[in-house]
Amino acid sequence: MHSGGEWGAVFRRFAAAGALITCSAAAWAQTPPVKIGLVLSLTGPAASLGIPARDTVALLPKQMGGRPVDYIVLDDASDTTQAVQTTKKLISEDHVDAIIGSSITPNSLAMIDVVADGKTPMISLASSSKIIEPVDARRHWVFKTPQTDAMMASAIAEHASNHGVKTMAFIGQADALGETFYAEVSKFAQLHKIAIVANERFNRTDTSVTGQVLKIIAAKPDAVVVGAAGTPAALPPKTLRERGFKGAIYHNHGTGNRDFLRVCGADCNGTFLPTSPVLVASQLPDDHPAKRLALDYIKVYETKYGAGTVSAFGSYAWDAGMLLNRAVPIAMKAGAPGTPEFRTALRDALENTKNFSDSNGQVNMTPNDHIGLDQRARVIAEIENGKWIYQPR
Fold this sequence. Notes:
By secondary structure, the protein is α/β, with parallel strands linked by helices. It folds into 2 domains: 34-147 and 294-374, Rossmann fold (3-Layer(aba) Sandwich), CATH 3.40.50.2300; 149-275, Response regulator (Rossmann fold), CATH 3.40.50. 42% of the residues lie in helices and 19% in strands. It contains 12 helices and 15 strands. The protein has helices at 4-30, 47-57, 80-92, 105-117, 149-162, 176-191, 210-218, 235-242, 258-264, 291-305, 312-331, 340-351, and strands spanning 34-40, 63-64, 67-75, 98-101, 122-124, 142-144, 167-173, 195-202, 223-227, 248-251, 272-275, 356-358, 361-363, 379-384, 387-391. The strands form 4 sheets. Strands 2-3-1-4-5-6 form a 6-stranded mixed beta sheet, sandwiched between helices. Strands 8-7-9-10 form a 4-stranded parallel beta sheet, sandwiched between helices. The longest helix has 27 residues, at 4-30. The chain is globular and about 65 Å long. It holds the Pfam family Peripla_BP_6. Belongs to the leucine-binding protein family.
C-alpha cells in the first residue's frame, strides 16, 4: 500500500509526463510548416493540364522532414498576367518555401523573374526548355519535371524518319509554346534530313484553323506536327482529317490527357505523340527506369479518382512533390522553413539531386541541367480508340 508521500510522488511523475505531452503537442502545433504554393491553370484553355495536377496535390506527402506541409493551390486561369500576380502573392503574402507551376509555358516563363527576385525555388510543370535554359542568374531558381520540348521534338523526328517521312509541316499555338516547339522540331527535322514545307499559327481560343490547314495541305507534306497543348490542340488534327489529309500527324506532349482524347475523338486515331512513360506504363519493358514508379503513381491516383483517370500532367506534379520531399530534410540542416536560409538550401538540394527515380525516369541534376532526365524519359505512343499504344522505336 502506498503512503500519502508515495502517492504524491506518483502523481507528480504523471503530471510531469502529462506536461511533456502537452508541451510536445503545443510545440508541434507551433512548428513552422513547409509551405508549397502551386500556380495551376485550373480554368481557361489549359484547364485540362492544371486539373490533374491539382487532383494530385491531395496525394502528396502531408509531412516532409518531420514538418507538416501546407499546400496553397491558386488558379492562374491560363493567363500570363494572372500567373505573375498569383506568384507574387504566394511569395510576398503567403511566404511559401517553394512554388510548383505553372501548367503552361508562357505562364512559367513569365514567373521566372518573380521567383528569382523572391529567391524562391520553382518547379515548372510546363514543357519548354527555355524555362530552365540557359541556367543564368534568373533560372538559377527554376527547375522543371516535364520532358523538354527538345527531348520530345527529337523523338518525333526520329520516329518520322524511321517511317519514311521526307517532308513535314508545322501548325502551332501563337505563343511561347508554339514558337519554342517549332524551333526544336525544325532543328531535329533538319538533322534527320526532313524538309519543313509549311509553318502556321493559331490562337488557343480560335474556333477555326481552316485557312491554315488549307495552306498546309497545299504544301503536300508527308507529316504534320501540331505544337499545341490541352483541348485546343484537337482543332488542327480534326480539321486536317476533315479536309482529307492522309499523312502522319504528331502532337505535342501537352495532349497527354483524357480530355484531349474526348475532344479529338476518332479524328485522332492513328496519330502519334511523344509522351511521358506514365501514359503507357503497363506496356513498357520491365527494365524501363520509370515503369515501377509510374505504375505506383497510377495505382495511387486511380484508387482515389477512378480507373482510366490518370494523365501525364498529374505525374509531373507528383514528381515535383517527390523531389521536394527528398530536398526538404536536406535543406532543414541550413534553416527552418519560412527562412531565406531554408529556401536557398532547398534550391541547392534540388540542384544536387542524383540517381533519383520518379514516375518519368531517373533524375540527375547539375548546375547546368535543372531537369536531369535522359532520353529514356520520353516514349512515342499512338492513339487508337481513346487509348495510348506504346510504340517501340
